[in-house]
Amino acid sequence: MIDFRMATISSRLSIMSEWNRNLSENDGVAWVNCRTAGQKAIEGELRSHGVNHLGTPEVTASEGFTVTDVTKRKITVTCPEKNVSAQFVAPSTALETVHSKAINSLDISAGGALGVSASSDGHLRIWETATGIVRRELEGHAGEAETCQFFPSGMVVLSGGLDTQLKVWSVEDGSCPVTLTGHKRGIQDTAVIDKGRNVISCSLDGSARLWDCGQGKCLEVIGQGSDAINGCAVAPVCDGVDLGASGSPSSEREVGTDGKLLLLAREGGSLEGYGLKSRQKVFSMSGSSPFNCCTFLSSQIMAGGADDGNIYLVDIRNTSEPQSVIHQSASPVKCMLGYQDGFITGTN
Predict the structure, then answer these.
(1) CATH number assigned to the domain covering 103-347
(2) pTM metric for this prediction
């Protein structure tokens, strides 16, 4: 996790994904490295010397690294030469039977009891987070679903696919009462507005669309451009930000758009903001490569993840330049999630 209040990171520590399993065994080994942009990586290993009576492994590090704290599920590693430290947390549960192919998208219900995920083999499934038992198989997309998420109620799921369709699903019985059509190419991301009467989608066709779920209609096409839109996010912003004046009266079917900003991550390398109510472009900020994802960290701070590994933090009150740019890896940033005073990213 990155704390956006202290976003000046030049080096990055990595550890193998199975570190906790390996280090729970006597003489088990896990590799670790420290990478700095433009420099050769420092590589090493951690070795277990058995497990104590509390079940905690006794771990030492090879030259160039130190281990400062170890528990059953957490380990803190430091690279003194680069003055960088990181805590690695092992998963509490690994659900290995929900999918057999790569996962495109995943979300957890507000109560935490259910998950929904879409995989590259075309499966869209609702499952129990405690056990991994699949509760519903959502069938209806022609091909892969690229994105899926719960509505705030936790009883409805929204999905978008390469088949250009948005679908609204019932968690209770797996039925699909609403299918939204209008995009010309595959859907990449979605956002639910308030309780979910209206939703946003963005597509490879270069547009974002505002939808009325109840009537299954598109209320507006927003931000139409020649380049694909890879990610979108919607949130209310702080006072004093000009979101543009509404032109023609909005439909009575439009609910909860006032005071909100629509953030778009574009393939052409720009991060754009639109007043959701006004449909007017508020800002456009250029990056160094295509933007893959975006999110809000607060009512003032937005973040965008780029294909070259850059993470842009932007203050909505001053969008002429980013507040800061973080570069930890050359791997594309594919997803972002605000968490406490920071955010979590996923890379290729």
Answers:
(1) 2.130.10.10
(2) 0.90
